[in-house]
Amino acid sequence: MKLSITFYYLIFLSIIIVNSCAFNPGTSINTSIIDNEISTAIKDSIFPGAVLLFGQNDQVLYHKAFGNYTYEKNSTAVKKTSIFDLASVSKVVATTSAAMILYDRKELFLDDKVIKYLSEFDNNEKAKISIRNLLLHNSGLPAFKKYYDEFSSAEEVVNDIMHIGLLHAPGEKYIYSDLGMIALQKVIEKITEMSLDEFLNKNLFNYLEMHHTMYNPSNEIKNKCVPTELDDFWRMRLLQGEVHDERAYLLNGVAGHAGLFSTAKDLSNFVLMLLNEGMYGNEQIIKSKTIDLWTTKQSDQSDRGLGWDTKSVNGYSSAGKMFSKNSFGHTGYTGTSIWVDKDSKLFVILLTNRVHPKRTNRKIVKFRPKLHDIIYKTVVN
Known about the structure:
Helix content is about 35%, strand content about 15%.
């Protein structure tokens, strides 16, 4: 009888162990192919340095740093705690999230017209532009303007956006627009009576323990920021700890379309909140229904959700071929990206400085989807 009890106990124990290993895929995945892929990318000068973090469900499975700040000998090694200029990933982590919070609070509605908040926007046939149009990038506003070649202050840039003409009627055509996200920033600041960075610190970043996420890094931490471009046409210096985007720089570093700096770990807190139906700890940061709506493709005009991008199923996607059509994410010009697959619960955060030394290096366009496919096959398949 004792042997029988022992036997059944061992069987029971082995079942628990097997199930626990199945629940935690991090115990069995082989990441050497991923390590090699990043290392080869650095050798091929796709980027000088990178931090890659990915996970599934509520777990971070992988978090590693590679390469150096620059291609120069004895350049500082990138660390897991290194801070990157997120570029257009700022659009979703910052501006879109702020809009989602206000939407949840019923202080902002998708079909509100922009002129409800910004009377100075009421010109050149812009009266019909809605908040939804700004988030879908079909407002008719131009994609961008250089601005640095004609203006020298934030006031001049904002004034130009308020009075600029349209390329198309609102809702008529998809044009990915930095100017639209700057307009949304001004709406958010009007509603909250705070600057965008102040609102985000109080209502998002502090709750998510994103202590290394900020606009305008202080002089004390600039050495922790991975350099971006060697600017030889305007600022005439290596950009480190100051925003790469010229329009964001003119907007004093805080802009609706760019300007946010962060680490992979901080961004994983943000993504885990989204995957956990908007909960982080005991706090409901964003409503679950809001997350689902805003990260879902909205029309056949484009692959955009509200603020977020979704995976193209008929053409190129930076998320690769393996992520499901039920995926959302965003990329940044400096070489950053976030992708989340709602079906498999897989998420990938890739931070690089591919614009170093010059932005003409676009090798990451082919590399990034390949990397996402490898990660998917490693974790999910």
